[in-house]
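A protein record pairs a chain with a discrete description of its three-dimensional fold. The following entry can be read in just this way:
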Amino acid sequence: MTRGGVAIPMSDVEPTLAESGIGQDFGAPEGVIDLRDGTAPSGASEGRAPSGASEGRAPSGASEGRAPSGASEGTVLVDRLDRRRLFELDFVDAPNLEPVLSSLLHRRLPADASRMDTVLTPNVDIMVHLKQPGAEQSVEWKMFQGSQYCLPDGQPIVLASRLLGRPLGARLTGSGLFALLWPRLVSDRRSVFMVASSELIVERLDREYGDLRSTVAPIFDVDDVETIERLAEAVIASAGEQALEYVILGIGNPKDARIAETVLRLWPDALGRPPTILALGGSASMYVGIIKRAPEWVQRIGMEWFYRFLQEPRRLFHRYFVRDVAFVRLVWRQWWADRGAATTDLGESAANG
């Protein structure tokens, strides 16, 4: 890839995709693709849905990011994370992000071959969007349903899972994952491509990892198919020059989901296995300190959303206090559907008995 390209104006970043992040602080960075000149692819049951034979732990003797002891270089590792079915999505069920991090660093394949090697982080706002009438036909719904790593990135989702009798172990945030994964990608010199929302993000990440390949997205509409395809083609062109393991998308939902779908759809067979695609929205912005994260004690009590509201009350008022109230209805409908299913099962058992 030609390095030292011309940067593109800041995108309409949507940092609200990931509900939390970790902050640090910092001319066009090297490795930026100039899009202006055209430079350029389950059958889980309700409740707990294990996607492997055993608990989601790294194989005995394996350290993060390395093949297990005795394994050959080409050994295929299978994702063994547990999952719970909730709101028609299979959420990863883990006590913390460590099992997810280990699986990503090993680049484990999904036990269900129909799943896509993607990381998506639904929060309350995304769930409300996905459950709108007709949304089941959208690209976003397809991507969230088929994602290998569907992480519960919102405390209300975790609380709802407990209310509904399908308790998730913990909230697993996209920004928390980025803060753990990025330093490992840097130290292990893994091959990474970043689709960033601004030149500043790339500049700060490039200071930590000079081999980062990247492009800065222009401002575009979610239905702008041409721009989405150009961003996907930039990823594929980079992979054609040098093998690519990870793609980090930092625009926001639903644009990240649509870019991910396009990369996978256009991915040439000749390039082999597609990279792991992480749709992490504003997580990189939080990591480099552009967006400030709530103190840890605020995160622990599940009030990070309110901390963010205080930072941007005019922008977030409608989201938190008008639009996202619909999540209560989603929980009620799920509870009612579960109750009806339980009543039906009891009736059938009595009749058969």
